[in-house]
Amino acid sequence: MVMGSLREETEVVVIGSGPGGYVAALRLADLGKEVLLVEERARPGGTCLLEGCIPSKALINAVEIKETALAAAKLGLTFSDVVLDADKLRAWSDSIVDGLSQGIGALLKRRGVELVHGRARLTGSNSLDLEGAEISGIDFDKCIIATGSALNRLPDGIVSSVWSSADALKLPSVPESLLVVGGGYIGLEMGLVYQGLGSQVSVVEFFPRLLMGADFDLVEIMVQQVTKRLTEIMVDSRVLAIKEVDGGGYDVTIEHAGETVSRHYAQVLVAIGRRPNTEDLGLENTGVVVDEHGVIATDAECRTDDANIFAIGDVASGPMLAHKASREGKVAAEVIAGHQASFDNRAIPAVVFTDPEIAWAGLTEREAEQEGTAVNVGRVPLSALGRARTLGRTDGLVKIISDPDTNLVLGIGMVGPMASELIAEGTLAIEMGATLEDLMVTIHPHPTLSEAIMEAAEVAAGTAVHIHRPRQK
User: Fold this and answer.
1) How far is CA 458 from CA 22, 217, 356, 446, 469, in A?
2) CATH top-level class of 6-150+275-336
């Protein structure tokens, strides 16, 4: 076949094979639709798999194993020095990504989804052209845009040789010192990875505190722990300039605490957020509406303003999270197949894989305060749990946010070990319209960290057994 010589027709074309796109394609195939999946990269999986969630968690796990080994000394277990083999660690991370990407390819093949590699540009509401593919274009009945997001461009004054988070995940080296520009979840996760691998890590954040999206009480516990590991945390600060030095490293000018300071670092990592991949998609040739931030307007069925085009994941409004994209992918697929479906979820869990982990879902205290919503909050420290004490990890808490009149669970937040695994129970409670009593009477196994959810509900209801309550006069 001559490159780009033919066009194909299909019922549905999905642009992007990330956790939203490939899930949508598989669901469509299961519902009997003919599907073409277009992916610009050589491998399916999207940013999350190839240079995001999965490789970062592989590195985070390696560091956690090291830290656990070192912390075991207080339990009476002493290990010999932990030695890093960067090549083996890199190969381990790459093998995970390769295996999962091949798995996605196998799923697509077994479901009869054709994977086309190329750059897609919409030429109308029912057609697109392809660049770099064996076919020149695709004519379709419906289209799902699932092109994800990209790292924000570097601002003026920052040289291009600094690392992005994608660069850092490739583990090119372990620098003696590292400055992380950006105190969001990506910057903190990667900063703690490199600190665990041997770098002296500093963080600079523009806002007054780290992780502005999370409640302060959760973040504060995490900050107390990571401060012991990081060289310097500069909040309410900004980088003015980064200059690469001939002898190696970077001279960085920072505005901090009302002064302009200069620091030298062996490497700089810039993690200042992401933007939707909606540029150069040919959206101007359709009825799709895009706001000034590049976000595509959609409704609860994931439809855009163009009746034939849907949008999911990072290009649509809402948090840029893989699990949100996957849910939207299923919704869009089912709507296209004629089923009743809508993205009407009450809660989207968010997780920050720092040490300790932070997770939350539903209404936060910060949001309740901003909205003027009255809430009841029940907190339980992990120090009250036997399981947390056996782990030697009492640095954390779980809190339940509820309606003071109905006891309806509105939100949940937690910080501590395995928060990423515990948050789903709270998310389910919010989704099902559970009350405090529902959580309280659900028998939680003992001794586990999950008991904190039950205990927090009891605190919120005023019936706590293990948390002291002042006597009422």
Assistant:
1) 42, 19, 24, 16, 11
2) alpha beta
Helix (H/G/I), strand (E/B), else coil: 449: coil
* Closest to 23 (Cα-Cα) out of 111, 133, 117, 141: 111
Number of residues that this document lists for the chain: 473
Tell me, yes or no, if 117 is annotated catalytic: no
Maximum distance among all Cα pairs of the chain, rounded to whole angstroms: 87
Residue for token pair 């309606």: 403
Active-site option among 264, 293, 323, 446: 446
User: Please, are residues 400 and 436 in contact by the beta-carbon 8 Å criterion?
Assistant: yes
Residue-level pLDDT at 247: 87
Range of lowest pLDDT (110-114, 163-167, 177-181, 348-352):
163-167
Q: What is the pTM of this model?
A: 0.93
Long-range contacts of 91-98 (CB under 8 A, 24+ apart): 92/58, 92/62, 93/55, 93/58, 93/59, 93/169, 93/171, 94/55, 96/54, 96/55, 96/58, 97/45, 97/49, 97/50, 97/54, 97/55
Phi (first) and psi of residue 233, to 5 degrees: -120, 120
Average pLDDT, the chain: 93
- HSE (CB half, 13 Å, CA atoms) of 49? 24
CATH assignment of 350-461? 3.30.390.30
Domains 6-150+275-336 and 165-272 share a fold: yes
Helix (H, G, I), strand (E, B) or coil at 300: coil
Class of domain 165-272: alpha beta
Residue 335 CB contacts under 8 Å (≥ 6 apart), including other chains:
301, 302, 303, 310, 341, 342
> Residues 144, 21: contact at Cβ < 8 Å?
yes
Q: Where are the domains of the chain?
A: 6-150+275-336, 165-272, 350-461
pLDDT-derived band at 2 (thresholds 50, 70, 90) equals very low
- Under the banding of pLDDT at 50, 70 and 90, the label for residue 473 is very low
Q: Give the mean model confidence (pLDDT) for residues 253-272.
A: 93
90-128 pLDDT, tens digit per residue, is: 999 999 999 999 999 999 999 999 999 999 999 999 999
pLDDT surpasses 70 at 469? no
Segment 401-423 shows an average pLDDT of 97
